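Got a spare moment? Tell me how you read both lines of this record:
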Amino acid sequence: MRKRKWGGVGYFVLAILAMLGIFSSNAVAEMSTEFHGFFESSFVLRDANGLQYGFFDEAYGVQQRNTLKFDVDIKPDISWGPFSVEKVHLTYRGAYDSIFDLAAHRYNIKENLGASRFDYGLKDIRFENDLREAFIDFTFKGTLGRGFFRPGRQIVSWGEGLLETLNDVINPPDNSFNLFFQNPDDVKTPLWMGRINYSIPRMTNLSLSFDLLWIPDIRPTQLGPLDTDTNYTSDGQLEAPYTSILSFADNRGISRFRYNVPTNENEYGAKVSSQIGERLNFSFVYFRDVVNEPSVVLKNFAGAFPTLAEMNYNKQHVYGGYFSYQLLAFGVEAIVRGEISHYTAYPIGRPRSDYKRNYDALGNLAEIETFAYKPLTKTMLAIDKDLRLRWLSKDLTKVSAEWIHKTINEWESYLGKPHYVPHYDGTALVTSPGKTLRYDRRNMREQDVFLLQMMTYWWASKLNPMLVVGFNPGKHGEGSTYMLKPSIKWYIAPNLYTDLKMQAFLGDKDACYGFADGIETSEVTLKLGYEW
């Protein structure tokens, strides 16, 4: 979040500095520090109708973001026998997106929105000034094992997947300033939490460790500004460039959004990890989750159309595990990765013709539920291999292949009928034929995505090209969908770089899942940065 951040974080940092002074009069003389970070300027050009309908023939700038980010690690050298203060970690990020000044005629978002602290306005996405992480490591090392206690604002990642989120649900994503495939830590919202880790003494071929998390800081997925209908364009999209495209975005009667986030709840979780021998690692996890994604209920009807979208966040259990194994057999060396997760009550979007309608005692339409809570299981299997492809590069080419399978464990079967969608054309209420629904147990319930990633180096490691391809196979009358992301990074000097990347989606835009929702949005990003 970028609202009211400095208060709690500032007190925490002051407490850390005071502690260092109190516990050791020689703390300043004895401590060591590490400082690293980057400054980066990026420009994002968006094709509004998608790559397969013309190569950037409807292009406009949606971002010119200038970012300063750095990490400070302070190692104070304070200890009491087996106990010590090992590290204090701080991460700062500040940013200015000039697109809202360069294209002020397009982005007339209000400075401030509603009373909810989860609403973003223009100030929030135009500027950022955020001490993102601030935590301290209290460690123990003795004959009974080793461990640490880490209180503070931090990011915790679980899992082995590259493309799909399976068990990595702890920190909610921040979709307010980026759309596709950025650095995972940069699009996560840090949370205040307490983390305890303990590892037993290593046995001959076995090591075992335990992680416990307690999170009182409940945050949802952060969207861009959800403003009133004055910020809609003629095609029904919100004008904020990185607002998620909602399923009801073409209903221009909605003038108000309301977040119902259970901030009085707590999240907590546990992980057990083990290394067997030198080549096999596996973990089992449990997390009590306040779901990051909203369950949208439409309310306050003016005639047949809602004026309020209520964003609700339910609770669920997440169970799972993951492993990695170094394969050395038949002259082959590779890394095999796998992951599985099960969600007990995940909000699944209903097809528009099957929104659940609830009526009051007088028979008037009271609310429309756009979702259904369903148990959901995801599995992933992958292999990473270094290949010597002489036709491509003199250096090794790193290749990763990943398969993700998703199953909605309970499902109502929907008939594949044409249906009509009511909406506003800007002046009046009209109806038009929607997609042919294919939401049945054969299609929507079972979903697969295949991912291929290739990365190598050219020109004495000054050029770093990468290609990521995603494939979602069509079935039962639907076409396939594809994700394409080529990029090349050029290290102009050891610390100075430029990065050019494109992300696009192709295929059947009427498919009921996969990459279909992104087909009419393609982007090119150019970055220039300096890192130290």
